[in-house]
Amino acid sequence: MKSIIRMRMSMHDAHYGGNLVDGAKMLNLFGDVATELLIRNDGDEGLFRAYDNVEFLAPVYAGDYIEAMGEIIGIGNSSRKMQFEARKVIIPRPDLNDSACDVLTEPIVVCRASGTCVVPKNKQRNLIPISQSTVPTSPSGLAFK
Q1: Which is higher by pLDDT, 9 or 136?
Q2: What is the rounded average pLDDT of the residues 27-41?
Q3: Is 9 helix (H, G, I), strand (E, B) or coil?
Q4: Residue 10 DSSP one-character state
């Protein structure tokens, strides 16, 4: 199961000189991706337990568009092992004018991480897509196992 979000880094996100965005912002995006994955998989937001690896690979600046993606790569009784990647997909071009931007033909990987989330057994609802189920569904289009 995979999830992707895309957002523009604002001046509010810039934390250092030169409008550099704090690397922790990428971890914040990964947390949002993880939450969506847990909701889709378990019907609960769960908790992020720990990152076991984080690599900051390229700078991120205010005005950059970042695509953060993640996937569940392992499922235990209550643990969900996940891996994440953040890519810069659009960059501002202030050298041309104050509103110019370029879509990158090759996204730039700015951060990679992996970690573990948990959903307590008593909160797992084991949601599955409606196309895989013949049982009654919720208004959101998901069915319960």
Answers
A1: 9
A2: 96
A3: coil
A4: P
- In this structure, the number of other CB atoms found within 10 A of the CB of residue 116 comes to 17
Closest CA to 125 of 144, 112, 139: 144
Place of tokens 């953040």: 86
pTM, to two decimals: 0.84
pLDDT value at 16 more than 50: yes
Helices (H), the chain: 24-42
Instruction: State how far the Cα of 34 lies from the Cα of 109, in Å rounded to an integer.
Output: 18
Phi then psi for 55, rounded to 5 degrees? -130, 120
Least confident of 11-15, 24-28, 91-95, 141-145: 141-145
What pLDDT shows up at residue 24?
94
Question: In the numeric block, which tokens belong to residue 22?
Answer: 């704090």
Backbone angles phi, psi at 8, to 5 degrees: -90, 135
